[in-house]
């Protein structure tokens, strides 16, 4: 009988269950399991920092060692969320510093964190090990100095794509001489030079260093020195990858790479001088991840590299790879799981770059394990999309961005409805989808009908009417995140699906056709949602119910309306709400 | 909870059922959105006394004035904000110099980079200038700007009498011919691959994304093959 098992045994069993979803399921089996589980939960993931409060988290899970929080909406990555919106880590750090003395890991994404908070982290948690600040902002190298100086057991410091105020390159020197625990350092986002001697010293005293991502300012000539100190590296991000014509630099680099027998991932490659590429050819056969998305090298050079990397699983690259490079990829890299192709020119198709839909079709044909695609291009056709769908029904993430909004099928001039329809129909495990091109309400009907596992959907410049949005909200059972911009979706669909919004993490709608009146109704009917209207221009008149809102962000929460909203956000005054 | 809300939904939105036809050849009732106001008034009567809740700003928001920033954002010439969906640090990779990204936090509001300055040197003028390519949207405007930049300097170099006064440069000799390529001077640029190219062959945007620096040279130089740098091959015409 389950209920006669002692707590310690159950706790031990639960310790093997690490996924959040599984833990959540365990916790609702019965009251005693809920109690046991909450005392032994060590990792908490909060996908929207405003969905819950620090106090609630701490009350329920008193013994947490690892916290992951996400703040701003995804569209903040593309400057659609105004400054001062929120996502402040401060209150979380403050409360955790009081209640979680044994906290080891903090991971933040799209949040604002100050130097004061970083200093508090560095002094509050004696066993602190992992700090990941992904796409964060609000802090400077001073905060990093505090982390370096005080976190004796730090293993991982990852500043991935954060905006850091670069006050001094000497923060690295703050790691004490006794510091030997570093395993992973990602400083690739830092703009200015760090003290190279400090960097060298750090690498030399970190025998467990597995991941090192340098910033652009670290010159190529210094890279070989670092590699010689750390031949055990598994992931390396280079700095600028050029150095004039220096044969001594080249040979030192080449020799250093030869010594890196464990290297599986390469990134960096700013300002690439193609003549230095062969220096790392010796590691290519082992590479599983290659990020060339900052390298403006041309297709022949890229192809040469790809042909040497048969074990590649993940490739990030610019559209300079062209169809020819993608064809080579399809032939050489049978283990490819993820492909991301970024645009080199934001607006105009570069006449020298021949990247079309054919490249993507080739890869989906040749790479049987391909699951995740992010592809920027200038043209697409329904027939190509249908072929892709039939080639790769195992796709789980398909993000296509045709750069010019509302571009039709370039062959038939039709909308791309049936193409994307084929994607959702064949790829039954699709969990993330981004649409682009000319699309009518019909594509949303297909999505609502077929995309039953879809977790996140991004829509831009698409659809004809509310029916499109209604199809998505009423049909996509697993939908958790929906972000929409510049679509003619409005009140009717939103208000017809209010209950759906409580099953989702968040909804973003900007430059659509939602009125303030509908927002009021939504707020009234759904007290468990925060309905935030962003009015940056100050032109919104909340008394005029049919006034359209600029940007709308709706999310479920148990923490009530947030107290840190900037002046340009409107929300319903809860104090005068009717109680049902 | 589901039951409670669904009833309200049905009462409130009979018009949605009209949107979903039986036979799947759907159509949209164009005036549905316009009816919202009318239906909403019915709504208010159902849910309670109208006008009880107020849509208001909390205290922190009262007297909020749209900041100057917003106005400035709107006045910048748009490409569409946030499109294509590429993060700021990925933009202009090709056109960035080998120096690292600026140290201070840059607020990238539009998808354009603010102030893209490139060096420009002119033969015979020892001091170079800088031009902001984002301030122009065509070659014509660039040529005019280049002309204005160097006209005075060039005249000063050639003026043997000395003592030139600042100000009116109208009478100085214009650097004609940049536009048509048959004058005394030509404008060339170094691109992201280190090659020297004649300005004007490719669309403006393409030029901006690949240019690293500019030079005004004598047109007669174009026909010579000369050593212009360690990575130079031939000057392309």
Q: Topology of this structure?
A:
The complex is a heterodimer of chains A (580) and B (237).
Chain A (H helix, E strand, L loop, with lengths): L6 H8 L5 H8 L3 H10 L2 E4 L7 H7 L5 E5 L19 H10 L5 E5 L5 H10 L5 E5 L4 E2 H10 L5 E3 L5 E2 L18 E3 L9 H9 L6 E3 L6 H10 L5 E3 L9 H12 L6 E3 L21 E4 L6 H8 L7 E5 L3 H11 L5 E5 L14 H10 L5 E6 L4 H10 L5 E6 L14 H10 L5 E3 L6 H10 L5 E5 L5 H10 L5 E5 L5 H6 L1 H4 L4 E5 L5 H10 L3 E6 L16 E6 L12 E2 L10
Parallel strand pairs in A: 1-2, 2-3, 3-4, 4-6, 5-7, 6-8, 8-9, 9-10, 10-11, 11-12, 12-13, 13-14, 14-15, 15-16, 16-17, 17-18, 18-19, 19-20
Antiparallel strand pairs in A: 20-22, 21-22, 21-23
Chain B lengths: L1 H11 L1 H6 L16 H12 L20 H8 L41 E6 L2 E8 L6 H20 L26 E7 L4 E3 L5 H7 E8 L19
Parallel strand pairs in B: 1-5
Antiparallel strand pairs in B: 1-2, 3-4, 3-5
Proportion of β residues of chain B? 5-15%
Residues in β-strands, percent of chain A: 15-25%
- Tell me the Rg of chain A in angstroms: 25 Å
* Number of contiguous helices of chain A: 20
Q: Count the beta strands of chain A.
A: 23
Strand count, sense and closure of the main sheet of chain A?
21 strands, mixed
Helical content of chain A stands at: 25-40%
Distance between the termini of chain B: 74 Å
Structural class of chain B: alpha+beta
Class from secondary-structure proportions of chain A: alpha/beta
How would you characterize the largest beta sheet of chain B? 5 strands, mixed
User: What gross morphology of chain A would you assign?
Assistant: globular
Percent helix among the residues of chain B? 25-40%
Number of helices of chain B: 6
Write the element-wise H/E pattern of chain B from the N-terminal end onward: HHHHEEHEEHE
Quaternary structure annotation: heterodimer
Tell me, what's the shape of chain B?
Answer: elongated
Which value, in Å, is the CA radius of gyration of chain B?
30 Å
Which regions of chain B contain 5 or more consecutive residues with pLDDT less than 50?
1-78, 96-113, 160-171, 225-237
Distance between the termini of chain A: 43 Å
Q: Give the strand order, joined by hyphens, for the main sheet of chain B.
A: 2-1-5-3-4
């Amino acid at each position: 009988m389950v209920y006669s098992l002692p707590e310690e045994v159950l706790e031990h069993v639960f310790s093997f269950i690490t996924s959040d979803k599984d833990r959540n399921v365990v916790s609702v089996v019965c009251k005693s399991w809920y109690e046991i589980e909450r005392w032994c939960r060590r990792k908490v993931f909060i996908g929207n920092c405003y969905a819950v409060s620090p106090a609630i988290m701490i009350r329920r899970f008193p013994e947490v060692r690892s916290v992951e929080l996400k703040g701003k909406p995804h569209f903040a990555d593309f400057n659609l969320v105004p400054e001062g919106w929120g996502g402040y880590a401060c209150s979380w750090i403050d409360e955790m510093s009081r209640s979680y003395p044994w906290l080891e890991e903090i991971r933040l994404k799209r949040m604002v964190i100050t130097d004061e908070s970083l200093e508090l982290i560095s002094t509050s948690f004696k066993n602190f090990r992992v700090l990941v600040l992904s796409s964060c902002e609000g802090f400077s190298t001073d905060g990093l100095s505090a982390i370096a100086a005080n976190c004796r057991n730090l293993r991982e410091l990852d500043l991935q794509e954060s905006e850091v105020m670069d006050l001094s390159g000497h923060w690295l020197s703050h790691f004490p001489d006794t510091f030997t625990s570093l395993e992973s350092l990602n400083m690739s986002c830092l703009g200015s030079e760090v003290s190279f001697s400090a960097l060298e010293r750090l690498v030399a005293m970190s025998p467990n260093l597995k991941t090192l991502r340098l910033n652009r300012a670290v010159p190529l000539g210094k890279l070989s020195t670092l590699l010689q100190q750390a031949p055990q590296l598994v992931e390396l991000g280079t700095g600028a990858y050029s150095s004039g014509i220096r044969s001594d630099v080249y040979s030192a680099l080449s020799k250093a790479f030869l010594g890196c027998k464990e290297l599986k991932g390469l990134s960096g490659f700013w300002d690439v001088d193609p003549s230095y590429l062969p220096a790392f050819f010796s590691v290519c056969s082992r590479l599983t991840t290659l990020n060339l998305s900052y390298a403006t090298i041309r297709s022949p050079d890229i192809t040469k590299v790809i042909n040497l990397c048969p074990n590649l699983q993940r490739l990030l690259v610019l559209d300079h790879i062209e169809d020819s490079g993608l064809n080579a990829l399809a032939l050489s890299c049978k283990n490819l799981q993820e492909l991301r192709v970024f645009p080199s020119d934001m607006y105009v198709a570069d006449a020298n770059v021949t990247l079309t839909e054919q490249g993507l079709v080739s890869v989906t044909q040749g790479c049987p394990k391909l699951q995740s695609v992010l592809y920027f291009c200038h043209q697409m056709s329904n027939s190509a999309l249908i072929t892709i769908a039939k080639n790769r029904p195992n796709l789980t993430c398909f993000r296509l961005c045709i750069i010019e909004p509302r571009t039709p099928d370039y062959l038939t001039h039709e909308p791309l409805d049936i193409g994307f329809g084929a994607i959702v129909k064949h790829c039954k495990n699709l969990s993330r989808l981004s649409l682009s091109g000319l699309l009518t309400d019909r594509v949303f009907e297909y999505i609502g009908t077929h995309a039953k596992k879809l977790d996140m959907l991004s829509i831009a410049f698409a659809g004809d009417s509310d029916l499109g949005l209604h199809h998505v909200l009423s049909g996509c059972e697993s939908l958790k995140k929906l972000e929409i911009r510049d679509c003619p979706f409005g009140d009717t669909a939103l208000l017809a699906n209010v209950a759906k919004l409580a099953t989702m993490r968040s909804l973003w709608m900007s430059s659509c056709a939602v009125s303030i009146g509908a927002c009021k109704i939504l707020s009234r009917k759904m007290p468990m949602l925060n309905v935030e209207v962003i009015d940056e221009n100050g032109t919104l008149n909340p008394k005029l119910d049919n006034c359209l809102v600029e940007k709308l962000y709706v999310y479920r929460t148990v923490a009530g309306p947030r107290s840190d909203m900037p002046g340009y956000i409107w929300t319903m005054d809860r104090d005068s709400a009717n109680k049902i | 909870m589901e039951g409670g809300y669904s009833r309200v939904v049905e009462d409130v939105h009979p018009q949605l059922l009209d949107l979903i036809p039986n036979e799947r050849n759907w159509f949209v009732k164009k005036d549905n959105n316009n009816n919202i106001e009318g239906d909403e008034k019915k709504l208010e009567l159902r849910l309670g006394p109208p006008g009880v809740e107020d849509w208001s700003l909390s205290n922190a928001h009262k007297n909020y004035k749209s900041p100057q920033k917003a106005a400035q954002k709107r006045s910048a010439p748009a490409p569409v904000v946030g499109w294509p969906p590429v993060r700021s640090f990925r933009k202009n990779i090709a056109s960035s110099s080998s120096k690292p990204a600026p140290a201070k936090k840059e607020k990238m509001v539009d998808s354009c980079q603010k102030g893209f300055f490139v060096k420009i040197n002119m033969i015979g003028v020892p001091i170079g200038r800088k031009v902001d390519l984002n301030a122009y949207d065509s070659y014509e405007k660039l040529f005019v700007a280049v002309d204005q930049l160097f006209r005075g300097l060039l005249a000063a170099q050639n003026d043997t009498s000395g003592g030139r006064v600042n100000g009116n440069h109208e009478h100085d000799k214009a650097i004609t011919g940049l536009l048509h390529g048959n004058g005394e001077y030509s404008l060339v640029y170094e691109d992201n691959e280190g090659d020297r190219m004649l300005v004007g062959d490719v669309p403006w945007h393409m030029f901006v994304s690949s240019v690293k620096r500019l030079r005004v040279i004598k047109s007669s130089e174009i026909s010579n093959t000369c050593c212009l740098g360690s990575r130079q091959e031939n000057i392309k015409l």
